[in-house]
Amino acid sequence: MVAQSKRRETIMARSTSFLIALLMTLVLCCSASASVPYTLGTGASLAVEDHAGAFLMSPDATFSCGFRQAGENAFTFSIWYTHAAEKTAVWTASPGNLVNGRDSKITFRRDGNLALVDANGTTVWDTKTKGKDLTLSLLDSGNLVITDNPSSPGRAAWQSFDSPTDTLVPTQPLTKDTRLVAGGFILYYDHTNNLLRLLYDGPVMSSNYWPNPDNNAFKNGRITYNSSRLGVLDDSGVFMSSDNLTVQASDLGQPGVKRRLTVGPDGNVRIHSLNNSSGRWTVTWAATAQPCSAHGLCGENALCEYVPRLRCSCPAGFEMVDRRDWEKGCRPVFNSLNCSKGGAQQFKFVRMPHTDFYGFDLGYIQSVTFEQCAKTCSDNCLCAAFSYRVDGRGLCFPKFRLFNGFRSSSFFGNIYLKVPIDFNISAPAVVQRSSVGLEACDSKAPRIVMAGSPDTLFATPRNDMKWSYFFVFVGILGLLVLLFIVTGWWFLSSKHSIPSSLEAGYRMMVAAGQFRRFTYRELKDATGNFKEELGRGGSGVVYRGVLDEGKKVVAVKKLTQNVAQGEEEFWAEMTVIGRINHINLVRIWGFCSEGKRSKLLVYEFVENESLDKHLFVGTEHRPPLPWRERYRIALGTARGLAYLHHECLEWVIHCDVKPENILVTREFDAKIADFGLAKLSGRRDGGAGGVQLSHMRGTSGYMAPEWALNLPINAKVDVYSYGVVLLETVIGRRVSDQKTPEGQPLEMPRIVQALRRVVDSGDVSALVDGRLQGQLNPRQALEMVRISLACLEERSSSRPTMDDVAKALTAYDDEDEHPAYKS
Ligand SMILES: *[C@@H]1O[C@H](CO)[C@@H](O)[C@H](O)[C@H]1NC(C)=O
Ligand SMILES: *[C@@H]1O[C@H](CO)[C@@H](O)[C@H](O)[C@H]1NC(C)=O
Ligand SMILES: *[C@@H]1O[C@H](CO)[C@@H](O)[C@H](O)[C@H]1NC(C)=O
Ligand SMILES: *[C@@H]1O[C@H](CO)[C@@H](O)[C@H](O)[C@H]1NC(C)=O
Ligand SMILES: *[C@@H]1O[C@H](CO)[C@@H](O)[C@H](O)[C@H]1NC(C)=O
Ligand SMILES: *[C@@H]1O[C@H](CO)[C@@H](O)[C@H](O)[C@H]1NC(C)=O
Ligand SMILES: *[C@@H]1O[C@H](CO)[C@@H](O)[C@H](O)[C@H]1NC(C)=O
């Protein structure tokens, strides 16, 4: 005993001195690598994992280039202003293509080609340059150039200034061959008239909207005879274009201010200036003060309003085509006018004040009365609406399609919509309104998540940069020593490395149940090297495994996405999830988290497949799920969710409630899977305030409207999804598969309307899954549909809580009281 502890002491002393030496090496190493080069020869490369650093920095440190995070696990190769608080890209290689957050890299290949390579080895983008003695440099102007002579970059083999994205930096020319693009919005020189213009180029239509298309060039202060087609923002804040457009930033002439000119996602062009002390950008010029004058913001038949944020809405009598996408616009709820009937239909016109739809005119008539204008539209079957301007000139514009709609109190013109004469416009309003989320401010919450990187994580050797061979060598040596010491300590103290702040909680959990940490090796063996796949979903693939020498069957889930970024966060989530224990929730036995390996979760194995198989997939071996079991599963699911929402140690939102995530036991008890993978929200939010999740989870068809409308998310999103599942349990079909007689997908508001009528009649038997052949409890069925309707309320605050739902279902659970029930 004594000898052993002595030995332990000497080893400790030795490793401590090692550690000190190592720390000194690391300090030296770091201070050396802090100076980022501004020019590199071929052979250099940067891995995406080093995204905190830069690949290159301009000599005066104004610009940096390297990897920039664009989503949870998605990166771009970009250039940005070094001193801005956030990496706002002024240039991006191939903006549409993001690369994985692991294993991707940018390489200046030996043959002179600069290439961006994704995790799976695909070259996402390259400069296609070739040459022996090429160098890559980032200039003080923000231009990234490849040239054979860095001292005269004029003869560049390739330069980023030639392929701008949505931004111009000072001195970067916009030419007849370049354009700025943001979504469907394009700033470009029109070759036909030499004008600098803004164009919306969408999937259904395209149209110019700046400068004001109602005026000619001269009236807009432009000239058309200078064909040099060149625009430059200079260092003092003046943007000058060859068509005589000259604009000035409001902080004109202040020395040393960093600026950029951009086309925003809302189609406006702005100059932004960087505030030295805060590192934030302020807008110092905008092309239009009226945001809705950009075209294409809201899609066909929709209206744009600025009140005081950009909003899209559908006119009365119209509804959104796709609740997640304003670009698809609105469609009429009345039968659209049918021209092939030969004008036999009767119309009336509905007035929309202060409104216009730009373009798509059948013609243009001047000096006519309102009645004449209306008659022109009535007589032309193609006319869908007309615009009449009341400014004394009697301007009449009959329109065949309605795009680029806007409403503004300062606009003095009206639109008159043509509708069938029997259409009751004062009927329950179908107006939907929502903010578009198109503000110029850059969205902070990253939304895009790339798939996890392949298992070849450590297999690909990195190309080392010439200039850092030495430091890389020292670094690797240091890491090896560190590894050695850590392993030594680990064995000595013979316990796993648990973040100290969480150790207490972990120990409690281990003591309380069978929750524990597994090693990767253990789980690899238990699953026979991840052989038998049980299923796969958004968060990962599930494998069957056997533990405790074949005694315990488990389900091992390999997470494909980073549910939590850091080790500490993952631990924190595990300590919460591990403590959750309820009969209607899938039990979690443990987890495995080893460095950069995929994280694994070990769950109880549930034999009887998921609810979707029972409800939607009928086979000869599987008779339709009987009524009693349906009710039992609905009630169990409600109780499980109520527990998650109200009784857990911490308040958990599931965010992806759907039949696939409801597992069924042999006894037909429901067990909810996959909870806790969405971000846990603090209890202090109390469910009322709502939280902002950083990215969208959930499955289309089950997602509450809040997701699409960008509203705060709270537990009521689960209530909505539960409402859909409850309805599907009754009808035995997917709600999202419901079609109109014409084969169009039925939207949820219409389904809800129809259901209301059935519920009001007091008998829902006709709705119930036909395969049951009337074997059901009608009172339970009525209650289920009634609850489902309450859960599907558009406004989250009108929906019941899961506690309410569980109580209401429990009240009807007593089957013996209902003789109508035939088992
Ligand atoms: C690599 O991944 C990208 C996107 O993740 C995909 O589009 C491409 O097809 C993949 N290529 C190969 C060879 O797997
Ligand atoms: C045309 O525009 C360019 C660039 O703004 C300018 O240098 C040139 O003098 C202009 N030419 C004429 C004829 O105005
Ligand atoms: C060009 O713009 C300037 C002011 O910005 C104006 O004084 C000048 O007359 C314009 N030139 C032409 C030809 O319109
Ligand atoms: C901002 O900083 C730059 C250099 O860091 C300096 O040259 C410039 O004068 C500063 N501008 C202002 C307005 O403080
Ligand atoms: C820059 O930011 C600081 C701190 O946010 C603020 O006090 C200052 O007024 C800003 N300067 C300008 C010119 O906007
Ligand atoms: C229009 O009416 C004609 C004749 O009644 C019919 O054949 C056609 O399908 C209708 N079109 C639409 C879009 O309703
Ligand atoms: C139109 O709807 C209103 C309100 O729903 C109703 O009072 C009115 O009777 C309806 N008119 C016709 C002609 O259907």
TrEMBL record:
ATP binds at K558. GO terms for cellular component: membrane. It catalyses: L-threonyl-[protein] + ATP = O-phospho-L-threonyl-[protein] + ADP + H(+); L-seryl-[protein] + ATP = O-phospho-L-seryl-[protein] + ADP + H(+). The keyword Thylakoid does not apply. Keywords: ATP-binding, Disulfide bond, EGF-like domain, Glycoprotein, Kinase, Membrane, Nucleotide-binding, Receptor, Serine/threonine-protein kinase, Signal, Transferase, Transmembrane, Transmembrane helix. Residues 1-34 form the signal peptide. Its EC number is 2.7.11.1. It is found in: Membrane. Residues 528-821 form the Protein kinase domain. SMART domains: B_lectin, PAN_AP, S_TKc. GO terms for biological process: recognition of pollen; response to other organism. It is a single-pass type I membrane protein. Pfam families: B_lectin, PAN_2, Pkinase, S_locus_glycop. It comes from the Eukaryota. Its main location: membrane. Residues 31-159 form the Bulb-type lectin domain. PANTHER family: OS07G0415500 PROTEIN, RECEPTOR-LIKE SERINE_THREONINE-PROTEIN KINASE. Belongs to the protein kinase superfamily. Ser/Thr protein kinase family. This is Receptor-like serine/threonine-protein kinase. It comes from Eleusine coracana subsp. coracana.
